[in-house]
Design a protein that fits this description.
The protein is an all-alpha fold. It contains 3 helices and no strands. Helix 1 (7-38) runs antiparallel to helix 2 (48-58). The protein is elongated. The termini are far apart.
């Protein structure tokens, strides 16, 4: 079904989803910066931005662009948070 759709429509859907993903990525960065500035924890929406970017570009005619989802800080922070959680449990 998706293969019968014109490339211009695929690109429109891809760009809209990628823009939504970019919004979430920038909001996550903003939450991280604001939390460090105020010395509080402000939760962003980790991994959601990368998911939307991945989804947008996997639906585009050029599939390898989906690797741009790896730029989402939430994706990179998941292993770090798992490591921090295990480290904290060992310290207790």
């Amino acid at each position: 079904m998706w293969s019968n759709i014109p490339d211009s429509t695929k690109w429109t859907v891809a760009v809209i989803l990628a823009l939504i993903g970019a919004f979430f990525v920038f909001m996550t960065y903003g939450a991280m910066i604001a939390g460090k500035k105020d010395n509080t924890h402000i939760s962003g929406v980790p991994f959601v931005g990368g998911f939307f970017i991945f989804l947008g570009f996997i639906l585009s005619p050029i599939k390898w662009l989906a690797f741009l989802a790896l730029l989402d800080p939430g994706f990179l922070m998941i292993p770090y948070n798992i490591w921090q959680g295990r480290k904290a449990k060992k310290d207790v």
